[in-house]
Amino acid sequence: VVKQRMQLRDSTYRSVRECARQVYAKEGLGAFYISLPTTLAMSVPFQSIQFATYEFFRKYFNPTGEYDPKTHVIAGGLAGAIASSVTTPLDVAKTLLQTRGSSHDPRIRNATGFWDAMSIIKQRHGVRGFFRGYKPRVLTNIPSAAISWTVYEYFKWFLDTH
């Protein structure tokens, strides 16, 4: 919630502490947890898809299974791109919920949870609304997943050889 609020274009918060304090004072403790079910509903499929697609591409590009950083970078990047693509609608709903307290729109300010957020997005923006921020999300997940999987595979290899 704090990260999302501070990233808003018109954010006036100057520190994490100030943001957290103001959110708590204006909206209460529940504001920090309104998006938790949506976050979990997004994170579980994201990780599942990322893991499965990484394993698929790793085996496709490197059937022998030998340590190969290039394979891990490419497979990881593809896995991150696919997982973030599939779960973008959930991320849009999560972001709406996390930033609702900063909205001037009463309908958004009073959003009660996942299904309410999904309804607002559909009503306001149609199906395309579920893919707002798609490109930046995918473009940040590609290098993140590529680096993570490459480091993971390196340490697996390192521990196995030492």
Descriptors:
elongated, 7 helices, 162 residues, single chain, mainly alpha
What is the fold's blueprint, element by element?
Layout: H1 2-7, H2 16-27, H3 36-61, H4 69-99, H5 106-109, H6 114-125, H7 134-161
Helix pairs in contact: 3-4, 4-6, 4-7
Description of the molecule:
- The protein is mainly α and 162 residues long.
- Helix 3 (36-61) runs antiparallel to helix 4, helix 4 packs across helix 6 and helix 4 packs across helix 7 (134-161).
- The chain has helices at residues 2-7, 16-27, 36-61, 69-99, 106-109, 114-125, 134-161.
- The longest helix has 31 residues, at 69-99.
- It is a multi-pass membrane protein.
- It holds the Pfam family Mito_carr.
- GO terms for molecular function: ferrous iron transmembrane transporter activity.
Strand tally is: 0
- What is the count of DSSP helices, taking H or I runs of 4+ residues? 7
- Which range does the strand content fall in? under 5%
What pattern of helices and strands is seen along the backbone? Answer: HHHHHHH
Shape: elongated
User: What is the C-alpha radius of gyration, as a whole number of Å?
Assistant: 19 Å
Sheet having the most strands = none
Distance between the termini: 42 Å
Mean pLDDT: 95
List the uncertain runs. Answer: none
What's the helical proportion of residues?
over 70%
**Classification by helices and strands:** mainly alpha
Write a compact overview of the structure shown.
This protein has 162 residues and is mostly helical.
